[in-house]
Amino acid sequence: MLELRNQLRFMLVGVVPKGTDSETILRDLEELELLVKTINGKVFAVSIQKADHTHRGTIIGSGKIQEVSDKIVKEKIDIVVINNIVKPGQLFELEQIFLKINPKIKVWDRVDLILQIFALHAQTKEANLQIDLASLTHMGPTMYGMSEILSRPGSGIGAIGTGETNTELMKRHWKYEIKQTSVKLDKLIKNREQQIIKRKNLGFTTVAIVGYTNAGKTLLFNRLTNKTNYVADALFATLDSSVGKLYLPNIKKEVILTDTIGFIKNLPPKLIDAFKSTLLESINADLLLLIIDASDPEYRDKTRVVDDILYELKLKNKPCLYIFNKIDTTNNIDENKLSEQYHDFNPLFISAKTGQCLDSLLRKIEETISNIK
């Protein structure tokens, strides 16, 4: 992963279908810029290509490549980020072109940027293994092996088995690394599964906090469990799952509360798969608390993103409460309208920061748990 000692100069390139409205493009790029800021980067240039069909070899056409090249020189760009999920070969071809004008240039797609943030915030062996697995599957055998193998002494033709090409050797090595990483991660998954089974056998009810990244999940977790987990106004500040205890006085019951990685739109399935061990806490929970940033003008779209991911994880049938957070920061929220719109999810309105209305949240959790069979 990249060393992030100094502020990096980024250029963002959006590749969108023709007819995409300017507001949608702007929203996507604003979120991408927030991701960049999370790793101490700053955006110095932006370019948009509207096309119904992307270039097969380099995703963007020759004219756009020249425009990006000019911006790289003018703005002294360190990293170009394509706001899409891009094939490893396409990224490699682009990087080879831009290396001619900047020998230190990096070309990433959206997933590469997210993985860099994950690596920055990972605190446990489990999280690091998940990142390794996600990186391996995202980069593909050729991209993974390009520097790993070809740069090694003795990796020339004489070191390769009969009839085996460099590409075949890279693919074999890539598969081996995935297998080894998966084996290590599987051991940790089994340990986590055993912990979950043990809690269930002891009769513990589990409540999981889920939501879009930076909605305030960890701050709420800390409030309810009296813990002091790291909190920041940044995307993916929390990566590892956390477990704490929450006592519900009215029903005289102690429950397990969990907090885990936040969601984000356009998160590829293979990235979700890589983090399945962390997400086990949510998957096995008895009740979900879906935290929504009420101050975010895009909260409706982001709530739909979370709903879609919960559906992919087969969690849509679990009891779920919608918790609108950060009401202390906005006066524009219509609680009556939202209560009617999200009636099936018993919406509540709180501030994890100030503690406002947390007593109502606790009562609703108690009520919901009491009705779970």
Task: Explain how this protein is built.
The strands form 2 sheets. Strands 6-7-5-8-9-10 form a 6-stranded mixed β-sheet, with helices on both faces. Strands 2-1-3-4 form a 4-stranded parallel β-sheet, sandwiched between helices. Mean pLDDT is 85; it is low at 147-162. The chain is 47% helix and 17% strand. The protein is built from 12 helices and 10 strands. The longest helix is centred in the middle third of the chain and has 36 residues, at 166-201. The chain is α/β, with parallel strands linked by helices and 373 residues long. Helix 6 runs parallel beside helix 9 (276-283). The N and C termini lie far apart (46 Å). It has helices at residues 22-38, 62-75, 88-99, 110-121, 125-150, 166-201, 217-225, 269-274, 276-283, 299-312, 335-341, 358-371, and strands at 8-16, 41-50, 79-82, 106-109, 206-211, 242-248, 253-259, 287-293, 320-325, 348-349. The protein folds into 3 domains: 8-117, Rossmann fold (3-Layer(aba) Sandwich), CATH 3.40.50; 125-183, no CATH class; 204-371, P-loop containing nucleotide triphosphate hydrolases (Rossmann fold), CATH 3.40.50.
The CATH H-level superfamily of the largest domain is P-loop containing nucleotide triphosphate hydrolases
Question: Which structural class is indicated by helix and strand composition?
Answer: alpha/beta
Uncertain spans: 147-162
What percentage of the residues does DSSP assign to strands (E)?
A: 15-25%
Major β-sheet profile? 6 strands, mixed
How far is the N terminus from the C terminus? 46 Å
Mean pLDDT: 85
**What fold name goes in the CATH topology slot of the largest domain?**
Rossmann fold
Q: How many E strands?
A: 10
The CATH architecture term of the largest domain is 3-Layer(aba) Sandwich
**What radius of gyration results from the CA coordinates?**
23 Å
